[in-house]
Design goal:
The chain has 23 helices and two strands. It is mainly α. It has two domains: 370 residues, no CATH class; 142 residues, no CATH class. The protein has a two-stranded antiparallel sheet with strand order 1-2. α21 packs antiparallel against α22.
Length: 536
């Protein structure tokens, strides 16, 4: 049996690639909360980031151990560890559709900003623990999940998030400082998409950060751009202990309220399960055959542990195992990532990265991730199902619009009811956008799955998906007509919705889906005997 060479020169490049992906997600978490909701960045650094980093620490340590086990079982010396990190799609989803709304709702209820931040933290912890438990429960049933849901549905909703949120929103930040942003993006696209190497074999992500950072600070020194006002003093975030409040378990009281966010949380958890399955298959194609249920179980375990420690983001296996193997990575890169990201969060020195790294230099990594996820979604989907993947993007577009609509309405100090008195048509359009964006991940999943079934001429299965959509719409899991998209029994909603939303009650929306499901069932009953007679 060959001795396992667990550390190799290729681990250096692999480490920088995996580590910077995770650091970028942490920067994204704090930056989006601060920029979109005026959330206290120091609170996020001292309460949320440490536990979130624990998820990476635990997950990558366990994946490193799995690499040693596989090497011992196979007798091979070239095993590459599965990469694990923070899930980028759910970073956007949890910030914009869980943490941010929970923070705003708490402030509107009369809590001061710090108490509202703590409330949002508790909600985030509860959702992450729920997500991890869900993934653990699904670990043994990974094959059934893949059979029941078509790839166009699973990957279509993921592509929608990647294209509409992950690629677009960082692009806005990049264009705030276009010289820096475009140079960093050019390095990312040249190295990671076109696969041209930088001199000295510098990793593309690190090269983009170095080029963008150097140009940014040179321009700032020359007075060409105004320095970004840092929302924190990095020293204030060192050696955080506040995250240990998680072990008082006061957040358990927020479980009931966190249930309203399940239409966001569970689809993201499901997406990481499917992503984990795909990652395991891609690793097998590259020569490293890991046990799929074990990989999913480790992912779920790391998410639960992180949630118990105060995390607000979930972990997931990364799709790039073949790329890390091609770099020559073994197990040292996941071990180094675990120790670096874990210590950065637990010791607090991540705050210096957040304060020093220009967002325009690091956010191009997010754009690449969005492009890569979208491209992989199409590549892994049968060509005839492409329309279903595209259809899945439409509800995500509504969610993108509603982010800015809600910010604009809050800034103007007005509501849709007040707006309707001045421009009824505009209020109706904005209400429709809000209704479509409510539970958009579930909507994308069901729409794409139904269309893929139709393309395969499986009308009964398409009808089943729309029957599920009818139930979801009836209880507000999707298409909730109220601000905040609450889950509710329809008979407990206001007796009459505002005029601009009167045609979008749960009864109408559920009835619409049910009518289409019945149409398809009838169509199938008529068409099937005809097809059978033609075949005979």
């Amino acid at each position: 049996m060959k001795r396992y060479i667990w550390a190799a020169p290729g681990d250096v490049n692999a480490f920088f690639g995996l580590m910077l992906d995770n650091i970028a997600d942490l920067v994204l978490l704090v930056g989006l909360l601060k920029g979109a909701y005026d959330f206290d960045a120091t609170f996020a650094l001292r309460y949320m980031v440490p536990g979130t980093a624990v998820g990476v620490l635990v997950g990558d340590l366990l994946f490193t151990w799995q690499a040693f086990r596989l090497a011992r079982r196979t007798g091979r010396s070239d095993i590459t560890a599965m990469p694990l990190g923070l899930d980028t799609p759910s970073t956007f989803g949890l910030v914009f559709f869980v943490l941010g709304p929970a923070f705003l709702a708490a402030k509107q209820s009369g809590l001061d900003p710090e108490a509202a931040a703590r409330h949002a933290w508790h909600i985030g912890m509860a959702t992450i623990v729920t997500s991890g438990v869900f993934k653990l429960a699904c670990a043994a049933g990974t094959g059934w999940i893949r059979r029941i849901l078509p790839r166009a549905g699973l990957l279509g909703s993921l592509a929608a998030i990647a294209l509409v949120l992950i690629s677009f929103l960082p692009l806005l930040e990049l264009l705030h400082v276009p010289v820096v942003g475009f140079l960093s993006l050019a390095v990312i696209l040249t190295t990671l998409v076109a696969r041209l190497k930088l001199p000295g074999r510098i990793p593309g992500a690190l090269g983009a950060l170095l080029v963008g950072g150097i140009v940014y600070y040179c321009m700032r020194a020359a007075g060409a751009i105004a320095p970004e006002a840092s929302p924190i003093n990095p020293a204030d975030a060192l050696l955080p202990t506040e995250w240990l409040e998680a072990f008082r378990f006061e957040w358990v009281q927020s479980f009931g309220e966190s249930l309203r966010y399940l239409p966001v949380v569970i689809p993201f958890a499901l997406a990481t399960i499917v992503g984990g399955i795909d990652c395991t298959e891609s690793a097998a194609a590259a020569g490293d055959e890991y046990h799929t249920p074990t990989i999913i179980a480790i992912e779920g375990f790391a998410t639960v542990v992180a949630g118990l420690c105060g995390a607000v983001l979930q972990t997931t296996p990364y799709i790039g195992h073949p790329a890390y193997k091609a770099m020559g990575g073994r197990a040292a890169y996941t071990l180094a990532t675990a120790l670096f990201v874990g210590s950065a969060g637990l010791l607090g020195y991540f705050a210096y990265f957040y304060a020093v790294i220009p967002k325009a230099a690091i956010f191009p990594i997010m754009i690449f991730i969005g492009l890569e996820i979208t491209a992989q979604s199409f590549l892994a989907t049968p060509r005839k199902h492409y329309p279903a993947v595209v259809l899945a993007c439409i509800p995500a577009m509504a969610s993108l619009l509603i982010i800015f609509v809600d910010q604009l309405l809050a800034t103007l100090g007005t509501t849709l009811e007040q707006l309707a008195g001045r421009n009824l048509l505009l209020a109706q359009n904005l209400q429709t956008i809000r209704m479509l964006s409510s539970g958009f991940i579930v909507t994308s999943l069901l729409w794409a799955s139904a269309l893929a079934s139709l393309i395969d001429r499986r009308l009964k299965r398409a009808a089943c998906y729309f029957a599920v959509a009818a139930v979801c719409a009836f209880f507000g899991i999707i298409h909730s007509p109220l601000p905040g998209s609450p889950l509710a029994l329809p008979w407990r909603l206001p007796a009459e919705l505002p005029a601009f939303a009167s045609g979008q009650s749960p009864y109408y929306m559920a009835g619409s889906y049910a009518a289409v499901a019945l149409l398809w069932l009838a169509w199938d009953a008529i068409a099937r005997p005809k097809e059978e007679s033609e075949c005979s």
